Amino acid sequence: MEIIVPSQHEPRSGARVSHISYEHDIPVTAGMEEESWAEALTPRLAQFAAVARHEHVTRAAQELGVPQSTLSRAMVRLEEDLGVALFARRGRTVALTPAGRTFLRSVERALAEVDRAAESVRADADPAAGRVSFGFLHTLGSETVPGLLRAFRVDHPRVRFQLVQNYGEAMIERMRAGGLDLCLTSPMPDAPDLVARRLDEQRLRLVVPDDHRLAGRRRIRLAEAASEVFVTLEPGYGLRRITDALCAEAGFTPKIAFEGEEAETIRGLVAAGLGVALLPPPAVPRPGVAELTVTAPRAVREIGVAWLDGHPDTPPVAAFKRFLLSRRGQLLD
Fold it and tell me: Are strands 219-221 and 289-296 parallel, antiparallel or unpaired?
């Protein structure tokens, strides 16, 4: 949901905005800046709408459960702050002025939006039918994540998911911005504001064209590929960092011919004879390539789940987190 922030008003000479509660009048605060309009007026919008609806201060006060005198003073203070008359008064009976009718239309839209926002967040937190924002790597999207969701929904059939596929750093930044509850990522993030739990590891293979000089091999030491041209994911991707680290451990810096954003695209470039690559196993065998087990160094990537430290979980998020942690060692089965 997009939240529309009211625009700032041009300052009026001598105008000051006051804050008022349901129970007490609070004096006008000298020097209050008008960028506080929303903060100052919002508590009184429902009061104004009630008075406008009933056209009677006493009946509106009874509905709101506040003293009639408090409500009357609140409406006077509202008009003073705005600098316009919202009501024409006849005792405790009131009628909206033209300015009051204009203001009421906007107030009703604002209150309706607040109602929708409240219902939305309540629905998302519903234990049985709430929403989980879940991010994961592209390489886990074809089989691993669909299998996880299918298994989870056996016991939670109405929980809704917002799914986001991206590379690890982008998912973590989105999570920090409030756009994700959990993410499956690799390598494991190490940051003070995150909690990360290892779930499984996945072996990486050296993928070569099927007519390559190494294609007949089943196993290889990565150092044997030091002279090869590599195709890799772009810098910033977790698998790229793992590739660079494994090659460094094997004693060389890979010569990069092409960089991409998706593992299966990289596998396609290998099949086209444009280089070799370190990749996780494909969901479906790809023609045109041979995939060799790397015996040294140990070529694996750890896959884990991460979330913001100290961030409160809604019931559906907590349930899905428990489910993921229960899959330790079985994530890729």
Answer: parallel
